[in-house]
Structures are given as C-alpha cells and as structure tokens.
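Subject: Transferase hexapeptide repeat family protein structure
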Amino acid sequence: MAIYRFKEFTPVVHESAFVHPQANVTGDVIIGKDVYIGPGCVLRGDWGRIVIKDGCNVQENCTVHMFPGVTVTLHEGAHIGHGAIVHGAEVGKNCLVGMNAVLMDEVVIEDECIIGALCFVPQKTRIPRRSVAVGNPVKIVKEVSDEMIDWKTEGTKLYQQLPGELHEHLEAVEPLREVEADRPKHPTSYMPRKK
C-alpha cells in the first residue's frame, strides 16, 4: 500500500479496512472498520485531518483533501462514488455521493442524503437530512424515500463486505490467454434502482 507518514502524522488504518495497493494515503488520515478505499484514491492528510468512519467506501479515483487546519469527516456508512472529490466537506451517515460529484469547502451533507452524479456543491452549502440533490450548482429536488434509503443501504453493505473478501481473495496473477469454457457467473442480487 502507498501509505506515507507526513511530518508527525502516520495514517491509522483499522485491520478490517481494505486500502487498495494503488491508493495513496498520506499523513493525518484515520480509517475505521470495514472501510473500502479503491484504486486511484488519494487521501491527502497533509494540511488537515481526514476521518473515514466505520463502513464507508471511497471508490476508485476519488480525492479527499482540505485547506490547512480543516477536518474532513465521512460519517458511518458514507458511500463516495467513483471519481468524486471531497474538499474540506463533511458527509453524514449513510449518504450517497454520486460518481464525479464535487463537494467544496465547508459543505455539510446531513445524514441519509443522496447527491447526484456530476453534482457540484458550492462552498458553505448545507444539504438537509434526507435530501436528494442534483445539478451544477446543486439544487434539492425532493426528499429521500424509505425505499431509496433501503436501496442505498443494501448497496453499501456490498462495499462493507468487500474489504474482507479482498483480504481473503485478492492476488496478483498472470492473465489467462483465453476464456475458460467453465468461467463462473457473477450473482445479480443487487440491481440499479428502478425510477
């Protein structure tokens, strides 16, 4: 893993968490239980602190950073989609931040919100609990329903199981040169949400 001490700060990673070998974790970063950090992620705790609480996932190619002296907190079960940027923001419990969304400084996303893909959340914006927010700049469009939060929670459970599976099964190998006749199929127990 690319884990780096910076000045007096050494990252803290719970033993049940999985930080991909192609992720970069620097300085004052605290990673909780059953957290998944995907390849290409950059968690830069060089100027401030990053706290990623239990059960979060920060997917491929995300960036988490801040201005000097700021703490970025991802609360329990926060789900940060592929390519998102969290800069000096706070993300509440059981939130979903969509792919390639950008959360700017001093943003607060309250618990159980859904922030749409490609969304831009300007500095000092506060998104109230259980809001669905989309657009550039962000606009709140409706309330998160029980069905939506149940669907999100089930998806996050997959990511909470993934660290253990990766610890047990991930291995570097040479590729096959052709597809095996009996190649296994993937389960389809979780599907995109129907509108």
